[in-house]
Write a structure and sequence with these properties.
This protein folds into two domains: about 1-25, no CATH class; about 30-120, Immunoglobulin-like (Sandwich). Helices cover about 5% and strands about 50% of the residues. It has one helix and twelve strands. Strand 10 (about 95-105) and strand 11 form a beta hairpin.
Length: about 120
Amino acid sequence: MATYHENGDITGPVWGGALSGWIIARANTSNVSRDGWWRCGETGIIMQWGYVGNTNVTHNFPLTFPHACFNVMASNADAQGDVVDNAFGHPVSNSSFFVATKVSNHNVISNYPIYWTAVGH
């Protein structure tokens, strides 16, 4: 049974306590893992991140962006041998992205592991 309080709050078992606390706790949601995401409850902005061991292919985001993916950023995950390598990426759709690496001294697309970050809403 829910209980109304003079300060305007409501407590009950459905919310695990005060309704105001339940609402505040859901303002921002997230999945904090190696391949995870964070969503701002106020603006709808979503940040996602992860690790890709197999580049030069399309991968799925952990969470589909409801409206648009603005940007995908990639960075090298390790030293990658004796060559300078450039990681890059771009959104393919609201649910997927492409990432790859490029060996600068041979000007060829390679397959080194990367970390990526994406922003959208």
